Amino acid sequence: MSAAFFPPVTEAWKKAQVKDGDVPCTAFLEAAEAFIPLFDRLGTVFSPVKSDVGGNVTKLKAAHAKNPTASLNKLILDEVAAGKTKDKTSASIALLWFKRAMQFIFSMLKKVSAGEDANKAAKSAYDETLSHYHGFLVKKSFQVALMAAPGSDSMLKALGNDKDQTMREMQEWVSAASPILDFIHEFLDKNNLDDKSKV
């Protein structure tokens, strides 16, 4: 029996909501960090995504420690002003790749919460999101790995004790995360930080 994953995580994401055209930086970092244990519950197939998300959250926290801005926007715009957005450890690059990995997970969970089988949802979500930024070898390795993604029954069991309740909780997180991820996507695009280079 698994303790319900989503309720405390959704509360954290609700605290990080966009307000007055900005995202509160500390609340956002706490929400991002709270989400990382999801990947442990979903199994080793999601280890690369956990590594990516976790690594980028660590970089964002380090950047914020050096420049403790109240807002996520200011953290990134200060880098723009300093000409440091291309630096290997920049918050800009970390936020970009965090956003992309989260768009993949968001799309998958949105599909599952709407009734699509989780294994199929993982594959189609990858095709719609992360695959656009992966070169041939990375894309092939992801596609092969996702063949082992759990089905809905296994996924829901890993995320809570009651399937229907977990579905409702998943839908609530999707609703809380959607405006934040949309805002970050638009903000990065508006500031010419959505580099389309493939890895």
From TrEMBL:
> Would you tell me the Gene Ontology cellular component terms?
cytosol; membrane
Q: Which InterPro entries match?
A: GLTP_sf, Glycolipid_transfer_prot_dom
* Residues of the Glycolipid transfer protein domain: 24-160
| The entry's keywords | Transport
Which GO MF terms does the UniProt record name? ceramide 1-phosphate binding; ceramide 1-phosphate transfer activity
Q: What protein name is recorded for this chain?
A: Glycolipid transfer protein domain-containing protein
| Native source organism of the sequence | Guillardia theta (strain CCMP2712)
